[in-house]
């Protein structure tokens, strides 16, 4: 609080002082003090629901605090709208991007700020070139935004902010949907923005990323600041302790190998899909967790989609519990006892106004229907309660509308959806993206628990830690082919990377 400013420190840009924000009975922020220094990257970390997005939204004028003060360069201020915040130089790149997919990069960058003087297109093209040059962000101005990969769309959002002369950009989980290479590029962009005097408030669940990119870190727990200070004073371990309020002994639950006699649940033989992958063969046994590792684009997700019936294979065959298995649609796969948590769940099939319970049981309503065609809500409640507890959904009651849950808790709900009705084969594509460290462990516990109950589990993951920590067996794909198999108990990072990248250079 207004203490001594160490020599060489940059000036305070914005401060939250005693900020409180409630949503009905939920206290999202409870007398929060945060000081963000100009030209620094300030990370906000905390569990799902800790209040990170809420704090970001208050800074960016998306939400107004119920109590407390906001100081901008020492002067008290209040933002009644995002527009008002932007006028003072603050804006937000949200957890969900908000671009117009059918328009070009150029149009999206300047949308809403078209000049009324002179020929817009020429002027915009000049300004665009100036911006990309100044901030070192390369993008083709005429590309259609909807056709760009997420990583590029994010750059568009950042340029959009810069075009509006933003001095502080709040980035809410900017790397949650990026590959590790894309995330690295974004981190470089963020550092270079800070180097050019732009202040960045950076929300992330990736603690190594936070330690690499941030100057300062604020840890939030249950809407309160646990501590706030230089990132250099934190370690992965100290952050985890601060975030969850206890030490997590191990990131992964112990693995019990499947019994030698465990039957094969899924057998994949010479499976191919033209243009995606070729000649992929492997088996997953009951009680076994197999991870599919490899670089993004190596065909892992595509294999999963074929097994789930979302895409059709062009060659090869599969068997489920020894029976020929030719899923023609996800619906049939589900009926056959296959469940899949798809990638980028946030955008998939979520009904924001409906309750968590309804969202969880929606694809399974058939299970809860009586002979007369009525939904047996009793059974539905019990099952929804079971599966949401299994993924560690706390705080949010299962009766709350989905829209009121924090981003990570929405993900957990959608994960829970696929636990309804005890599937035989559980497929998951990047199951812990955007989920906090405590909840990650929760999801690992769920996967290990499912395997222990005799389910066959097949996981695509780009997080090496996860691949190594979770799997009984690791399959590595490269360029659409299966290039190796490793024993999860003894495999090393290097072995996985060498297989993923090809022969050691
Ligand atoms: N519009 C809203 N209506 C009701 N409750 C809300 C609303 N927005 C947030 N909350 C609640 O406020 C708390 C803080 O949510 P917030 O989104 O800030 O969490 P977060 O730290 O960003 O979590 P995550 O890591 O999951 O994104 C949560 O309990 C959440 O359910
Ligand atoms: Mg959030």
Model description:
This protein is α/β, with parallel strands linked by helices and 505 residues long. It folds into two domains: 12-244, 3-Layer(aba) Sandwich (Rossmann fold), CATH 3.40.50; 263-337 and 425-432 and 461-505, P-loop containing nucleotide triphosphate hydrolases (Rossmann fold, 3-Layer(aba) Sandwich), CATH 3.40.50.300. Helix content is 31%, strand content 25%. It has helices spanning 52-59, 82-87, 105-110, 120-135, 150-163, 180-195, 207-213, 236-244, 300-307, 330-335, 356-361, 377-390, 407-417, 437-452, 464-470, 493-501; strands at 12-23, 26-37, 41-45, 67-72, 75-77, 90-93, 168-172, 199-203, 216-221, 224-230, 264-273, 277-285, 289-294, 315-320, 323-324, 338-341, 425-429, 456-460, 473-478, 481-487. Strands 6-7-8-3-9-10 form a six-stranded mixed sheet, sandwiched between helices. It has a six-stranded mixed sheet with strand order 16-17-18-13-19-20, with helices on both faces. A four-stranded antiparallel sheet has the order 2-1-4-5, covered by helices on one side. Helix 12 packs across helix 13. The protein is globular and about 70 Å long. 45% of the residues are buried. The protein binds adenosine-5'-triphosphate and magnesium ion. Magnesium ion is lined by residues 52-53, 95, 172, 406-407.
